[in-house]
Amino acid sequence: MADIISMKNQLMPAAGNGTDRLTKREVAAMLRLSPKTIERRMRCRQIGYEKDGRLVYFSAANVADYRSSRRIRACGVAAR
After folding, report:
1. Residue partners of 39: CB distance under 8 A and separation at least 6
2. Is residue 22 classed as helix, strand or coil in its secondary structure?
3. What is the DSSP string of 4-18?
4. Nearest to 66 by CA among 30, 36, 35
5. What pTM does this model have?
6. Strand partners of residue 51
7. How far apart are CA 47 and CA 38, in angstroms?
């Protein structure tokens, strides 16, 4: 049993140690959305995520990709 716990601790980094993994609540707070909205975006495959059993994690790169895909670019000013 102790071996399983130590293996789990090695595979799953502790929260707050500077890793790239973010929780659903952390992503919701970053994007100023509710966790339920994040779940909808996941279901529609609008934001990338990874699952570890029942746990869901997001990488900072996935959140950045989502943000850039939602950005509306301004039209360039026509040259005179």
Report:
1. 24
2. strand
3. HHHHHHHHSPPTTSS
4. 30
5. 0.65
6. 56
7. 8
Which sequence spans correspond to the domains of the chain? 19-70
CA distance 43 to 41: 5
6/26 Cα distance (integer angstroms): 26
Write out the two tokens for 21: 């993994």
DSSP class of 26: H
Contacts 24+ apart (CB under 8 A), 63-67: 63/22, 63/27, 63/30, 63/31, 66/31, 66/41, 67/31
pLDDT in tens, 17-63: 456 899 999 999 999 999 999 999 999 999 999 999 999 999 999 99
Under the banding of pLDDT at 50, 70 and 90, the label for residue 73 is confident
Token readout for 9 is 């601790």
